[in-house]
Write a structure and sequence with these properties.
Largest interface: A-B, 24 and 20 residues
Distance between the termini of chain A: 83 Å
CATH class of chain B: Mainly Alpha
Helix content of chain B: over 70%
Order of helices and strands of chain A: HEHEHEHEHHEEHEHHHEHEEEHHHEHH
CATH architecture of chain B: Orthogonal Bundle
Strand content of chain A: 5-15%
Helix content of chain A: 40-55%
Number of helices of chain B: 12
Largest sheet of chain A: 6 strands, mixed
Strand content of chain B: under 5%
CATH topology of chain B: MetI-like fold
Oligomer: heterodimer
Chain lengths: 430, 282
């Protein structure tokens, strides 16, 4: 009895020692704090698969986005640094840079030039300044997915990889005339990401901006055309949150959404679907990259280790295994291996086609709006509600909503972000 | 002696403290949030609320729902409660079955009805198999406002009639049988017995049921948002949108304050219109 108790307790003590040992950094570990690949399953794969071949020890610490600033601030104030590398989304890194918590990484970005970062992605890492503050790590964006059953109705001469909004309308019209189905779908439900469609795709494609040309003549023409297109859109769209569900059920045949909200359909039935870039308008092809980057904390205890880890994580083969785990895709020139899951391949190909399109108009997520992001989105969603769903007068609606937009921008004094032209002070709504 | 007089207060003190901490305090905070804008006392948040695209619809939808659902539920529940005593056998079973919806959460009930009414749901499947429709029909979109409204009414009737019914059953059991028997002996028709004897005696229960049900109906949320989404705004779903999606807590608080004012007004209305003499309260 005593003996078995002793055995159990010593095993317990050993386990505890192991646990404590694993939880606290040894001096030689590179500590990697990340707001991405956070769920237990993804974090485990990060440690056991993605980081497996890195020569040094890495302590991978996933944490909630808002904790990054808190933690780095605390370390900086206490002058007791443990974190070397930070992985986070563009906007999160921008907040860290504004607080002066990041070190420039121009030299590292320079050394990795042969990886083939697309120039517009690499430029994002400068955060609008002179110095490179992060190296792109991985990306997501919005894509279109169509059921192969819809392909026979594609208008003559249309190429999926370079579709225009006019062709999309013709396509959907043909499907409706032949099958009676309103086959086009958008994620305009309560939790859907419809606002991003207007901010990152429709407005940039038709007006070349988002805020400044909000009520321009081009915008009026755009809304008129979009209201026409909506005749072929499934009316359940105002309930759709994730387009993978109506695509899988067959309620819609063509859909637009964030790649993470399409991946379910592509993974489950890769043979039934095709993925392709969002359409283009008169000013080009709107494209909203969602970029995560790798940055080095100011005062990092192991900057050399962090730099080595950045070089490792941007290797093509590591980028691919990151994509398979996270649903975030390569930011470098990474040839897709033959054994890539077919759903991932579809998405990765569509993303590459989007960012390499000759007419691409990169449009950033809103910058500098803080907690007003929700009200900013509401302006675009209300405009859509009024013009398209309630058939109100376009000119009057744009005039009215432009005032709301100006209020949001003036409250936050946010300067213009891409694709609007840079501004001194708050971004103007003309 | 003094301790005996204090004892009841001591016993209710914990619950009073609990309610004050978790009800009164947030209430005061919410009201203050609603009446502040830019750090000053102001009606700005109410102006934003009233000026919003969905405000008119939210008010209209909420009142339309309450005006239809509450009276319909009262009549239905009354009929059920009055039928129950006439069952000789299986009364408990019927009581049980009729109370089942009470145990189902709002959201779950909404999902059940969504599964029935959605494009590829049970209703469309049955209608299709019977040859009544040629293709799946959408019932719950902005293009079919009447069908959507009807669907929400039916679902709400199913879900929340049980609470009215249970209150009325308790009331019916308290009505002495002798009254109805006496009325029958004096030659009253069944209709006269209902309107002259049973209903007046049930008045306190009806009042309670109406107040409770109306207040809850003004707070309707999960069911409506599941079936209607953005297509059918009501007051509470708008409060949620402003809090969650638009992240303007002040406007959300203004909505919450409005819902509270409407509920208080409805309660006062019932208390005045259906005044019950104290000696009639059972």
């Amino acid at each position: 009895m005593t003996r078995s108790f002793r055995r159990v307790s010593s095993a317990f003590a050993a386990a505890l020692a192991l646990f404590v040992g694993a939880g606290s950094a040894r001096a030689e570990d590179v500590v990697f704090l990340s707001s991405q690949l956070r769920p237990l399953e993804e974090a485990t794969k990060m440690r056991d698969v993605i980081l497996k071949d890195f020569p040094d020890q890495v302590l991978y610490v996933p944490d909630f986005p808002q904790q990054l600033l808190v933690r780095l601030n605390a370390e900086s104030q206490a002058d007791k640094h443990t974190i070397s590398l930070v992985g986070a989304l563009h906007g999160e890194l921008q907040a860290l840079a504004q607080a002066g918590l990041l070190t420039p990484v121009d030299d590292i970005q320079g050394r990795l030039a042969d990886r083939g970062f697309p120039p517009q992605l690499a430029a994002l890492g400068k955060l609008g300044g002179e110095h490179q503050l992060y190296v792109p790590w991985m990306q997501a964006t919005y894509i279109m997915v169509a059921n192969k059953k819809a392909l026979p109705y594609l208008p003559a001469g249309a190429n999926l990889q370079s579709l225009t909004y006019a062709q999309l309308a013709e396509w959907a019209q043909a499907i409706q005339e032949k099958t009676g189905q309103r086959a086009l779908g958008f994620p305009a439900g309560p939790q859907g990401l419809m606002a991003r469609f207007f901010e990152g795709y429709l407005y940039p494609s038709f007006t070349g901006g988002v805020v400044t040309p909000f009520r321009s003549a081009e915008a009026e023409a755009m809304w008129a055309q979009f209201r026409d297109l909506w005749k072929y859109v499934n009316p359940n769209s105002s309930n759709y949150n994730f387009m993978q569900e109506p695509l899988l059920s067959g309620d819609v045949m063509i859909g637009f959404d964030h790649v993470a909200r399409m991946l379910g359909a592509l993974r489950e039935r890769p043979d039934d679907f095709v993925a392709f870039p969002a359409p283009s308008g008169p000013k080009g092809r709107g494209y909203m990259p969602v970029v995560a980057g790798l940055a080095i904390a100011k005062g990092a205890p192991d900057p050399a280790g962090a730099a080595a880890l950045i070089a490792y994580l941007t290797k093509p083969e590591i980028q691919i295994s990151t994509a398979v785990t996270s649903g975030f895709f390569p930011v470098v020139n990474a040839p897709l291996p033959a054994d890539l899951p077919p759903g991932i391949r579809l998405a990765a190909t569509a993303i590459a086609a989007t960012q390499n399109a000759p007419d691409v108009v990169p449009s950033l997520l809103p910058v500098g709006l803080g907690t007003k992001d929700g009200e900013f989105n509401k302006v675009y969603l209300d405009t859509f509600q009024r013009i398209v769903l309630r058939n109100q007068n376009i000119h009057e609606v744009l005039g009215r909503e432009a005032q709301e937009l100006r209020k949001v921008i003036d409250d936050t004094k946010a300067a213009c972000w891409l694709p609007d032209k840079a501004s001194q002070g708050a971004c103007p709504v003309s | 002696m003094r301790r005996a007089r204090l004892l009841p207060y001591l016993l209710v003190a914990p619950s009073m403290a609990f309610l004050a901490a978790l009800f009164l305090f947030p209430l005061v905070q919410t009201i203050s949030l609603a009446f502040h804008a830019d750090g000053r006392w102001s009606l700005g948040k109410f102006a934003t609320m009233a000026d919003d695209l969905d405000f008119g619809d939210a008010v209209g939808n909420t009142f339309k729902l309450v005006m239809i659902v509450v009276p319909a539920q009262l009549i239905l529940a009354l009929a059920m409660a009055l039928m129950l005593p006439h069952l000789r056998r299986g009364r408990d079973l019927v009581l049980w079955v009729w109370s089942i919806p009470l145990g189902v959460s709002d959201l779950a009930a909404g999902l059940v009805w969504l599964a029935i009414l959605t494009d590829r749901g049970y209703l469309n499947t049955i209608l299709f198999k019977l040859g009544i429709i040629a293709a799946p029909t959408a019932w719950l979109t902005y293009e079919t406002p009447f069908a959507l409204f009807a669907a929400i009414i039916v679902a709400e009737m199913w879900r929340a009639t049980a609470i009215v019914f249970l209150i009325l059953v308790a009331g019916v059991q308290l009505v002495p049988k002798e009254f109805a028997e006496a009325a029958e002996i004096f030659g009253a028709s069944p209709w006269q017995r209902l309107t002259r004897v049973t209903l007046p005696l049930l008045k306190p229960s009806i009042q309670t049921a109406l107040i409770l049900r109306t207040v809850l109906a003004f707070e309707m949320f999960a069911m409506v948002i599941t079936l209607g989404g953005r297509n059918f705004p009501v007051l509470v779903s708008e409060a949620f949108n402003w809090q969650d999606t638009n992240q303007d807590y002040g406007v959300a608080a203004a909505y919450a304050t409005l819902v509270m004012a409407v509920s208080l007004a409805a309660t006062a209305f019932y208390l005045i219109v259906m005044r019950v003499r104290p000696e009639d309260r059972s």
